[in-house]
Amino acid sequence: MAETKYIFVTGGVASSLGKGIISASVGMLLQARGFKVTIQKFDPYINIDPGTLNPYEHGECYVTEDGQETDLDLGHYERFTGIRTTRDNNYTTGQIYKSVIEKERRGDYLGRTIQVIPHITDEIKRSIMYLGRKNQYDFVITEVGGTVGDIESTPFLETIRQLKWELGKRALCIHLTYVPYLAAAKELKTKPTQHSVKELQSLGIQPDILVLRAEKDLSVNLRKKVAAFCNVSPEAVIQSIDQNTIYEVPVRMAEQKLDSIILQKFNLSTEKEAEMGPWMHFLERRHNAKEIIRIGLVGKYNLQDAYKSILESLSQAATYNDRKLKTEFINSEKLTTDNVAGYIDKMDGIIICPGFGQRGIEGKIIATQYCREHDIPTFGICLGMQMMVIEYARNVLGYKDANSAEMDSGTTHNVIDIMEEQKSITNMGGTMRLGAYDCTLKKGSLVFQAYGKAKIAERHRHRYEFNNNYKEEFENNGLICTGINPTTNLVEIVEVPACKWFVGTQFHPEYSSTVLQPHPLFMSFIKASIEAAANK
Ligand code: GLN
What's the CA gap between 429 and 276, in Å, rounded? Predict the structure, then answer.
C-alpha cells in the first residue's frame, strides 16, 4: 500500500465506553486482512506519564519494551494485535507541552510567541505523523482519551481537524458514543449521541463512522435516525453491545462490516477476507471451557484495572488450558496468620501482586509463607517476588528482621536492596529500571521448561533488587536463582524446587501475554494450578 492512512478514534457522552477496545479491535481486524497497523493513544492529562499515578486514578501503568510507562489501553493494543508498542505510542498533554517548552528554551522558535495553535497542535501533529513517517505502517490508529467537550482534549481535536483537512482521503474519524436505555420509558435514547456529534462538528470534525455503545440492540430505524441527524451513512452506524468478553468485540464489529466500511472509505479493496481463524479458535475454546480454575490475587488495590494485564494473562492462559477463570481479590492488609487459611484454601493458585511501599506487605508475606508451606502454586510478580525472598529469609534462613530497603532502610538483613544506579536518583518520574532486559535461564529449572529456551527478555518496572550477597546462602537452602541478567548479574527469577510451582519474577511477564500468544509462565502456572485442584 502506498501511503499510510490515519484513523482517529474519539469519544463522546461519557468516559469508560471502551474506546481502547474499539481501537484495538479496529487494529486487529485490519491486521487480519494483512495490513500493518500501529495504535497510539493521547492522554489529555498534564502528568508526563502515568508512572507516578496511583492505580485508583487510571488503573495499571503499562510498560513498553523500550521502557515507557504508559496508559493501560496500550496493553489492549498489544493483547489484541500482538504488535509491540513504543514510547511513540502514548503521549500526554504534559509530554507535548514539555517538548514545546524545551524547544522554546533552546531557541528553536526564533523569537516567536508560543501558542496552543500552532505550536502545541504542530507538536501533536508531529507525534501522529512520526509513526507514519517511515512508511512502516498501512494504518496508524490514534485514540484520543477523554470525551469531546473536555477543555483538555481540545488541542488534540483541533489537530485532528487540521489533519483531516490536510490528509483528505487518507484520514477518517470514528466517534464512539453512548445510547442510554431509559427503563421507565422502555426506550433507547439517541439525543446524547446527536449532541455529542454536534459538539464534534462544532470543532470542525465530521465523524465518518459512529460506534454506539448500548446495553440493548439498536433497531435499523434508530440507526437510520442517528445517521440522518449526524451526516453519517446508515451502514456506518455500528452498535457495540456489552459482551461476555472483550475479545468478542472485534467479531461483533466484523459482523457489522466495520473493517470493510473503513477500507471502502479509504478507497481500498475489500476483496481479501480477514483471516480470523486463530482468533475464532481462541473464542471457541473460551466459550467451551466450563470447568473452573480459581486464582487468588493477593494485593492492596481492590480494583480490576490495577491488575489489568495480570488478569488478562491469567484468563488467556486459562482459555488455552480449557478452563474458565474465576479470580478473587485477597486484600493483603486484612491477612493475618489466623485468617490466611480461610482465604487461600479455596484457591487453586495464588498470585502475589506487584506494588510499592509498606502498606499491605506483611499480609503478602503471610500469604507467601502459607502457600510455600502448603505447596500451593504461587506466582510472585515484582514486589511479589521480593516478598517471596523476604519470607524465605525470615522463615527458612532465620533472619527475622529480613526486609527490603524500600520498607526498612535500616534493616541488618536487606535481602532486597536498592539497585546501585538508583541510589543517587531523587526524581520519582520515569526513573525506575524500566523496559525489556535480557535474562538467561538455568537449564533444568521450572522456568526453563516453561519457556522452552534459555534466552528471554522481559519488561521491568522497579527500583529494588535481590541482594546478591545472600545468593549463595539462599541457594544452599533451597531457593534457587533461575533467571539472571547476563550483563548486570541481577537476579530476575527465583524458584523453590521443593515446591510444585513456586516462582517469583522481578520482571512483569503480564505485559507481554497476548490473545494469540499466551505467556509461557502464565500457561505453566495455570497448568500447575489445575493439577493442584485435581489433587485436592
Ligand atoms: N516496589 C518494588 C521496587 O521498586 C517493586 C515494584 C513493582 O512491584 N513493580 O523494586
Answer: 40
- The span from the CA of 455 to the CA of 441, in Å, is 6
Rounded distance between C-alpha atoms, residue 320 and residue 513, angstroms: 12
Residue 382 a catalytic site member: yes
Instruction: Check if 461 has its Cβ closer than 6 Å to any atom of ligand 1.
Output: yes
Q: Is 354 in the pocket of ligand 1 (CB under 6 A)?
A: yes
Please write the tens of the pLDDT for every residue from 422-438. Answer: 888 888 888 899 999 99
Distances, alpha carbon 129 to alpha carbons 5, 122, 168, 260, in Å: 10, 10, 14, 24
Strands of the sheet containing 209-214, edge to edge, are 90-92, 37-43, 139-144, 5-11, 171-179, 209-214, 237-241
Mean pLDDT of the 29-45 span? 96
- Element containing residue 352 per DSSP (H, E): strand 349-352
What are 98-143's pLDDT values in tens digits?
A: 999 999 999 999 999 999 999 999 999 999 999 988 779 999 999 9
Instruction: Return the residue whose CA atom lies nearest to atom 6 of ligand 1.
Output: 462
Residue with the nearest Cα to atom 1 of ligand 1?
356
Instruction: Calculate mean pLDDT across residues 499-518.
Output: 98
Q: What percent of the chain has pLDDT over 90?
A: 90
Q: pLDDT tier at 499 (50, 70, 90 boundaries)? A: very high
Contact status, residue 166 vs residue 2, Cβ threshold 8 Å = no
Helix/strand/coil (H/E/C) assignment for every residue in 378-441: EEEECHHHHHHHHHHHHHCCCCCCCCECCCCCCCCCCCEEECHHHCCCCCCCCCCEEEEEEEEE
pTM of structure? 0.95
CB of 462 sitting under 6 A from ligand 1: yes
Q: Which residues have C-beta within 8 Å of that of residue 225, sequence separation ≥ 6?
A: 190
The crossing angle, in degrees rounded to 10, of helices 383-395 and 361-373 is 70
Give me the pLDDT at residue 267, please.
95
Instruction: Determine the atom of ligand 1 nearest the C-alpha atom of 464.
Output: 10
Query: Among 382, 439, 481, 499, which one carries the catalytic annotation?
Result: 382
464 lines ligand 1 (CB under 6 A): yes
In the structure grid, which three cell numbers stand for residue 172, read together?
Answer: 477518517
CA distance 11 to 175: 5
499 tagged catalytic: no
Does residue 527 have its Cβ closer than 6 Å to ligand 1?
no
Q: Per residue in 12-27, is it b (16+ CB within 10 Å) or e — as a string? A: bbeeebbbbbbbbbbb
Catalytic residue among 119, 175, 460, 508: 508
For the chain, the 3-state helix, strand and coil shares in percent, each to the nearest 5, are: 40, 20, 35
Q: Are strands 181-182 and 187-188 parallel, antiparallel or unpaired?
A: antiparallel
349 CB within 6 A, ligand 1: no
More confidently predicted of 460 and 303: 460
CA 258 to ligand 1 center in whole angstroms: 41
